[in-house]
Design goal:
TIM Barrel, two-stranded antiparallel ribbon, 8 helices, 9 strands, globular
């Protein structure tokens, strides 16, 4: 099972890296600058981890977790500008991007709104049709990526709770995060094995899973990563 994390966001990226196969790097929307992108790219290269862009609403104050009213054209421009910024730094290091994954509020809105999903997918396809698009499993962003002719990866989460409809429980809800390593490992193992997990309301939920995400800002993130990696690939 592919395991990914979002890096370049001020967390312990080096501690997570041994457990990852893919990273999405903040590239100037919610955080990130040329220096942090260079650092994150070099770290990923040291571990042989695939790299991708993590564009967001341009909202450093809200860390990209607030919805910003925007036209599809504006969203396309933001995705292109941020992804190109990372691609330029990567090129100077002899690296190539493998994917794009929206961050925060942009990710969640794209999961539910066709016009936002299409704007992101079209931006990625215009930049480089070889890039994969990561999105919430079974969401409108996945469908938009397929329509745009992109390779898509259904993303699932080891450290987040789900609603019965497959959407993530809002971070404003107390039960949104899974912080117990055993609970995170159990959810990850179920997702990787194609088994149902338990939604917040207690109902069973089946999700397609191509890549499993961990968050560096979840309390106890390194312990969670260790437990999840052991659960899904034995180390």
């Amino acid at each position: 099972m592919d395991i990914n994390a979002d890096i370049g966001e001020g967390c312990d990226d080096a501690g997570l890296m041994p457990y990852l196969t893919r990273v999405s790097i903040a590239c100037g929307g919610h955080t990130g600058d040329a220096r942090s992108m260079d650092t994150a790219l070099r770290l990923a290269a040291d571990y042989g981890v695939a790299v991708g862009a993590h564009p967001s609403y341009p909202d450093a104050e809200g860390f990209g977790r607030r919805v910003i009213a925007a036209t599809p054209a504006a969203i396309q421009a933001w995705v292109c500008q941020q992804t190109e910024a990372l691609a330029d730094v990567a090129a100077r290091l002899g690296l190539h991007l493998a994917h794009v994954k929206p961050h925060g509020a942009l990710y969640n809105v794209a999961a539910q709104r066709d016009e936002v999903a299409a704007a992101i997918a079209e931006a990625v396809a215009a930049l480089d049709p070889r890039l994969a698009l990561l999105g919430l499993s079974g969401s409108r962003l996945i469908a938009a990526g397929q329509t745009a002719g992109l390779a898509v990866m259904n993303e699932v989460f080891a450290d987040r709770r789900y609603r019965a409809d497959g959407q993530l429980v809002s971070r404003e809800t107390a039960a949104a995060l899974i912080t117990d390593p055993l609970d995170a490992a159990a959810q990850a193992a179920a997702l990787a094995g194609g088994r149902a997990i338990t939604a917040l309301d207690g109902s069973p939920l089946h999700l397609a899973a191509d890549t499993l995400c961990l968050h560096g800002d979840t309390p106890g993130a390194i312990d969670l990563a260790r437990a999840v990696a052991h659960a899904v690939k034995g180390g």
